Amino acid sequence: MITWRFKKFDPEEFSKNGFEELLKIFKELLVYTSGDVAEALSWLTELDKQYNLTDGDYGIADFIQDLKDKGYIEQDQPGSGTFKPAAKMELEMRRQALEDIFDQLKKSKQGNHTSKVSGWGDEFTSEIRPFEFGDKLDKLAVSETLRNAQINHGIDDFKLTQQDLAVHETFYKSQMSTVLMIDISHSMILYGEDRITPAKKVAMALSELITTRFPKDTLDIIVFGNDAWQIEIKDLPYLKVGPYHTNTVAGLELAMEILRKRKNPNKQIMMITDGKPTCIKIGKKYYKNAFGLDRKIMNRTFGLAVKCRKMNIPITTFMIARDPWLVQFVDQFTRANNGKAFYSSLEGLGQFIFLDYKNNKRKRR
Question: N or C: which end of the chain has fewer CB within 10 A?
């Protein structure tokens, strides 16, 4: 049975609800416009004309004034009359991305990953065990080792053998250092298909997930086109596609350089792309082949995949396309690295990234 509940009209409550609804739409538009406040407000005005988002009591002008008063937007430069998203808005955009993409995520204890195994780590347990091939010498239990040597060989003929060595067992160190690579080559908007916007949303959601729920982890973000460079989390909403080729080699080299400096034993690279490598840098010059599958470029790319495998750095590739030639490249790349690959639609990209990130947490050895 359908019923209606009537109550006294409250202009302040209506204004508050109207602001929240418009704010949610405005945040989405800011992602699509790469942080251009003026363009996002222009789109919002057109949507209001078409779908009557506001009424006479609360309009777009009121919404803009609330954005200023509540600290969501600020002047680009004093007296300029143009606005940019404030830090508060950037945080809200990341939170909304996390809510939209990882809504099914259950809260866990801050900074912890479940693990039932022991392994390499910094914290000693109370357990002592015999030395095994591959154990690090800095985990050597000196007192127990000397005692074993004395018992096994006596004082008169004191000597130290491998059988005498004992090491401290350590807690499994489950922190993860992740580098997220985002392709910003021209193909990410080719043929009128917007692939960069969902990639940005996933990156914002992943950054918010790690910084708020796994604060002991590290996340570094790289964008790559003709070259590769590192960006800050706050820069994610403003990413734009450029007139670039796809230099996957430059991205991988920078990711490996960053991960070498991380002390966590668990490291991984995640790469969101929609195309095969088409560019490498030889000396100061670029070698390009827009058709892709160039053997010189492929060999460099596969070589880095193998190098990452030897460094115990798995690479998870999220291919936002299903062209047979792309599938062939990703399959070869994944086998070379012994990593993972997902061929996802734009709608499923966030869920795939979440599942793989969490699985890597639980299955690291």
Answer: N
